[in-house]
Amino acid sequence: MATGLILHQHLIRRYRFSNGNLRAGQRILFIGDSTTRQLFWATAKKLNALAAEEEMRAAGKHESLMFDGGDVAVDFIWDPFLNSSSLRHELLSYLNDEPQEGIDSVLRAGLITVGGGLWYARHFESDSLHHFQDSFDHLAPLLGDPRSSLATLYSPPTAKRRDEAHHVYVSPVQRPFYGVLSPLHAATMTPAKIKPLNEYLFNVSTSRGIKVAWSHSLMTWESEQAYEESGLHAVDNVSIRRVDVLLNMRCNAQLTFSQGYPFDKTCCSAYERKNVIRKRLVLALIAIASIIMGFWTNSTLLSNPHVILR
After folding, report:
1. Which of 61, 78, 181, 211 has the fewest CB atoms nearer than 10 Å to its CB?
2. Taking the complete model, does pTM exceed 0.90, yes or no?
3. Regarding beta strands 65-69 and 72-78, do their DSSP bridges make them parallel or antiparallel, or are they unpaired?
């Protein structure tokens, strides 16, 4: 996170009435594995901590979840391999701004976070990267910001070019704290398997305009205290901060799109690039041209002292 930036701790009730608000009836949607489910519960706790804790105790591990937050609903779709039809339908519904089959038009998502990858390392002894790539390559055209010139090359032809900021984000593959993993997990979830997944994610995100919350990885990097006892999942405080990043990304991007910048010293914003680089380049070219002209004039006078400058 850059120096001088402020990460706002968002309360959802304040957040939904901010300038980057969700419309009534929209959802905050999380899709992926158990690390992404943690973001779902952290968001639910921001709405109603007591109710969320109670529902957590009753919830199954490998199932989709819903939390009623009043005006804003929070949903989680269990999809550790990121290849379900539900995931694709949700992304199409958001991208086209039209309801898809099986999705209530009133409840289309206003913020989507997708995250997974550990199951590829866990369940494939070899070629885990190949299988992850295969699934993600099918998703990439639906994840990229359609306003990005890179994403435009790959977006499906039915996609509309929305006049608002794009709020689909990807959480990087969770890097475990390897030293405390159980023998079973340590044998399958190795750095040799997981590092290439994030390297691929970095490459495909930069080439296709996909927004990845890389700060999620930095929040647990080489810190045993940031993990639960299993070494796989982050502690609650980290999950809450990760949700704050996502909410900042949405609110700040919406404000930037509608008002321009600088509007605040908040972080994670998809600020539009100004013409500063172009102006500096022009000034540099002028300076270089002046220097070259000076050297040419001096060398001309030295070689031909009879030349008179008029």
Report:
1. 61
2. no
3. antiparallel
